[in-house]
Design goal:
two-stranded antiparallel ribbon; Porin; eight-stranded antiparallel beta barrel; 2 helices; mainly beta
Length: 291
């Protein structure tokens, strides 16, 4: 194809050189005349552009720009500045440590039993039987020590053939407790008091009341069940001093044979006026409530 085009172009370029210098006419269906001048046709170059590869323009995809998220953070207002001023502190004088109040006051009830050996009116077979009864006591424990006091009263009674005896011992004692912060507290006591005694003979037709000075000493144990309640038991040895004036008065009555009871005054004339003291033992068991 390219070769044919080049040959046609060369033929066209050779035509003008064939009739140079004279005019010629060409017969033919289309007559025409050439002048004397040499006709040189203008050479028109044919430009054929070269085929190029197609240019493909690739447009990038549009970039979608998303706005960044906006976060709103609320911050608390700033705290006001605090100015700390240090001042010298005054000297603190330590107070003396107060002693704990260990004082205790208690009210107790108890069962009592007592027996005495000796004579009151010179009638050894009709005096001082074994007696039993009940009583009450008030106890106070001093602060900071095992010392305390006890005030007590008992009602003791007994009956035998042809006579009855009632004795009310009223005693005041000083006590001392060991191991005062323990549940088990042994204690000792010593005290004095008065025994109020009534003797009744002949079915109550003859009665005599007397007051006797008494002393006691004993040992016991107190067991605390709770802080306020305790159980206690003790044994007390007693001495009772007789009223000699009363004994003399009874002797006079016996000389006149009081009543018709046979043997009421038997043995009274043989009583020893120097026998002034009865010895005995008293037992207690009870409970105390401390306030």
């Amino acid at each position: 194809m390219k070769k044919a085009l080049l040959l046609s172009l060369a033929a066209l370029l050779m035509v003008p050189f064939a009739g140079a210098g004279s005019a010629s006419a060409h017969p033919g269906p289309y007559p025409h005349y050439h002048s004397w001048r040499t006709y040189r046709p203008r050479v028109v170059p044919v430009y054929r552009p070269r085929r190029r590869r197609p240019i493909v323009v690739v447009a990038p995809a549009p970039v979608v720009v998303r706005p960044a998220p906006v976060y709103v953070v609320e911050e608390p207002p700033p705290e006001p500045a605090v100015t700390v001023v240090r001042r010298p502190e005054p000297a603190v004088v330590a107070k003396p440590r107060q002693r704990r109040d260990d004082s205790m006051f208690g009210l107790g009830v108890r069962l009592s039993g007592a027996t005495l050996d000796g004579e009151k009116l010179g009638l050894s077979s009709a005096e001082n039987p074994t007696m039993g009864g009940f009583g009450i006591d008030l106890r106070y424990r001093f602060n900071g020590s095992g010392l305390g006091i006890e005030l007590s009263g008992d009602l003791l009674a007994a009956s035998a053939d042809d006579f009855d005896q009632t004795t009310i011992p009223v005693m005041a004692s000083l006590t001392y407790h060991l191991f005062r912060h323990s549940r088990l507290q042994p204690y000792g006591l010593i005290g004095v008091g008065v025994h109020f005694t009534e003797l009744s003979y002949l079915d109550g037709r003859y009665k005599y009341d007397m007051s006797e000075l008494a002393g006691q000493a004993g040992l016991g144990l107190e067991v605390f069940i709770t802080r306020h309640l305790s159980l206690n038991a003790d044994v007390r040895f007693q001495t009772v001093f007789k009223d000699l004036d009363t004994q003399a008065s009874i002797r006079t009555d016996c000389l006149h044979q009081v009543g018709d009871q046979v043997g009421f005054c038997d043995g009274i004339h043989g009583a020893d006026p120097n026998d002034k003291m009865n010895l005995g033992v008293q037992l207690h068991a009870g409970a105390t409530w401390y306030f």
